[in-house]
Amino acid sequence: MQELPPDPRARTRDQGLARLRRTTRFSIAGATALAGAFAGVAAHSNPGHKAPAAAARRRVPTAAAPQVTPVQTDEAQTPAPAPPPVATPVAPVATTGAT
Amino acid sequence: MIAELASVSFPALGTTALLCVSSPDGLAAAQELLEHELVEIDLACSRFREDSELVHLNASAGTGPVKVGRRLLEAVEVALAAAASTGGVVDPTVGRALRLAGYDRRFATVMLRDGASFRARFATVPGYGDVQLDRRRSTIRLEPDVELDLGATAKALAADRSAHAAARVAECGVLVSLGGDVSVAGPAPDGGWPIRVADDHAAPLDEPGPTVAISAGGLVTSGTTVRRWQAGSVELHHIVDPRTGRPAATPWRTVTVAAGSCVEANVSSTAAIVLGEDAPAWLEARGAAARLVRESGEVVLTGRWPQDAA
Fold first, then answer.
1. Residue B93: its pLDDT value, please?
2. SS3 content of chain B, % helix, strand, coil (to 5)
3. Mean pLDDT confidence for B31-58
């Protein structure tokens, strides 16, 4: 990995990065808490709610790709860095590209 | 082993939302939550609807602090953190520069304008130091002439929030893509979520291009080839370089970044577009797994982006 140049803004950048991670974790924790409450309300108000007929279902073979660790979902812990992407021969379920 | 996935897509935030779950039984609850999140984020952060909190906040520039809702407060806080982490390369105060350059309405409407007769104007970007956010009081104050545009981070934040919340509610793995800003949460399918990397997020799934799988975090592509408009005899795009106030002059057609969250990925990919030739070294310094594609088609990889997915 390439060394950072001795930039006087490096500390500001690092502090900003840390703030960004904290803020994201804070937001996700809040969203999760709200989701629980929202789910409870939804479950009571829509018993027996079914998936829309328009929803597409795909069968994706997954044996060809390597096993990966499930994501941490406990927001009380500092999430581990995401594992890097891996090349896969599996048919894609989504596309990332410019908007 | 075969994993059965279920997905649904629908228009949202001027683009397309895609929701994919690893258990079909969880789709309805996840979709309900996602739709709720998108309504909330649009009402808080849209630059194009008169009833949004952001429009009200931008109109207040130069006056006293404005009390804002939790959603906008978070979105601005994330945007300011992104600006600090990039030394102002990704800066939410580009709103005025973007508006004067011609991105002053929903993009579908921009494209209906007579571009040949449109004359763009350019403005300096005041910088994120001109935004004061008080979390305790839930207020934001903008200096005169400051207009915020949260396009670089709010959509990614919504993807992160909704993916994690939906995974908890649906009790399964979830992928949320908002215009190609992908966030995944919960237990991923074996092998991860396979995602095609293309120039345009709206490209069909069988479009040529590498496919990579992620099991956590986010995957985002920023580019200058899709959201473009005509201004007289030139074409402009939507990623403003805060140092010049003009659409970034960049050698990169697209930059795709994988990171621990969709927000982090989006900040890095947007910054890389702005940084131009300095982007690969900058991404390497951050340890970012990224794929950069030059206008010529040449591909540059950084970090732990897989060589066999170039």
1. 98
2. 35, 30, 35
3. 96
Nearest to A35 among B165, B207, B215 (CB): B165
The whole-angstrom separation of Cα B173 and Cα B187 is 5
Residues of B in contact with A14 (CB under 8 A): 85
Q: Which domains does chain B have, with CATH numbers?
A: 51-142 (1.10.3980.10)
> Are B284 and A2 contacting, i.e. CB atoms less than 8 angstroms apart?
yes
From the list B24, B201, B213, which residue is nearest A98 (CB)?
B201
ipTM of the modeled complex: 0.90
Question: Do A35 and B166 count as a contact with CB atoms less than 8 A apart?
Answer: yes
Q: What is the pTM of this model?
A: 0.81
Give me Rg for the CA atoms of chain A. Answer: 20
Does residue A34 lie within any of the structural domains? yes
Containing H/E element for B166?
Answer: helix B154-170
In a domain, A74, yes or no: no
The per-residue pLDDT for B255 is: 98
Could you tell me what percent of chain B has a pLDDT over 90?
91
Helices B262-275, B154-170: inter-axial angle, 10-degree rounding: 160
pLDDT band (50, 70, 90) for residue A29: low
- B128-137 residue pLDDT tens: 999 999 999 9
Q: In terms of CA atoms, which chain B residue is nearest residue A34? A: B165
**Residues B73-111 as b or e (16 or more Cβ within 10 Å = b):** bbbbbbbbbbbbbbbbbbbbbbbbbbbebbbeeebeebe
A54 found inside a domain: no
Report the residue of B1, B4, B5, B284 to disrupt the A interface, i.e. the one with the largest count of A CBs within 10 Å.
B5
